[in-house]
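Researcher: Next entry: Zf-HC2 domain-containing protein (Schlesneria paludicola).
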Amino acid sequence: MMSNTCEQIRERLGALLDGELDAASQTAVEAHLSECSECRAARDALESLDRTLGETLGMTRRHSAAVAERAVERWQAGLATAPSRFIPIRSGLRYFAAAAAGFLLAAVLFGPRPRPQEIVTEPVPAGEAQVATGPETVATIIQATGPLLFRPDKNAPWEPVPQDRIATFTCPTDGSLRTEAAALCELSTTDGGQIRLNEKTEIALPAVDRIDVVGGELWCQAPPDKPMQFTAARAGASAVSTWTCLAGSESLAAVPEEGAVRILAAAGVVQVATPGAPRSLSAGMVCSAADGEVTVRTSADELLYASRWMQPLMTRGGHDSPELARRVDALLARIGRTKVSFLLEQDLRNLGEYGALPLLRFVQSSSPEQDRDRRQTAMRILADTAPIWMVPDLIALLEDDDSQVRGSAAAALARLTRETQGLTPEDWQADRVRWSAGIAAWQDWWTRHGASCTLPPRGDRAPPTMPASELLKARQP
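Model: Predicted structure:
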């Protein structure tokens, strides 16, 4: 049975925990608690309740006092009118009952709201799942010589392609690409096609096999197993506005801001949609429209001129590039046979070291009697462009039957080595008696200096002690 002292102490526990007792009362309560285990348990229970209110409701016991007091009043009123069969509750428990009632009521009013019910998505049966994906990649940039602009769709703003991302940059469906001034670009489509863009050219990529040309110049090689279709997308395009490169075929196109669209077939077959019926172009044929009239003509020279802008991109394949070799052969074939041969010769010089190897191979493999003029032209260019790793080949050409070839070879050696072995280019064009001793001198020079010269692109090097008469055979392609 609880004593009056315990009842009084428990009435004061709340004030004790709230720091509201005076010093004498606090000393008396603490002295009682040190001796009474039941009152200590009551104090601990009240402390626990206080912590629970703070953690659960975000308030202290004092903040919920008003709620507790109202609950106590209603509870006590119920006890006063309760039938006698109910056992009276000791007054010492009144505070805890009130606190518990306040706690329960406060929990209802201020407690944390239940979490929203999580939505559980039922799994989609196999075969019916649909995976959301981004736009399909249709092309990858292979190389660029200057700044490029890109936008993912026609409504998006243009943004520069970071230089450090060009080698890995991909173009999605409906994306657009534009080259700035002095910038060339080459792309590879995901199905094996190749596209090159001249400066100030803009294209859109609605599909991997469909290209819209907004303006500029471009070259295309269709995949080996499927065609590629092109459309001049600018407003007011001429009667020639759509063309298709059949599988493996190549085309060159110019879509100017004003004037006629021009389509050239570089290889294979290119079909051009024209009013009335489509036209089929074979290699060397050109289709354009002027004043609404479509014309088709054959012009090998026009194809050479139209593809001049691609030469910097052709060097990507290196010195031994088959495409580069074909370009050199085509230019050599037209030199001396057109009024603008000087332009073609300048194009060969513009290739620099990259054009030197195809020129050398032509000189080495062609007939001095049948290709005299072209061999001499090639050697004049080599005198200005041959790299140091061609020294053994140039030494071999000092014994060529054509005096002009010998003189050009000597001029190239003098440029590369700052040596003449006491002979002028004119001496090399005279009788053998005048220059025969120079062969041994050049062999000796190569023996002493050849090891420090850079290797040719194919990685081999002629033995320095090989006689000059054998160097030509050793370096044949």
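Model: Note for the record: The chain has a mean pLDDT of 80.
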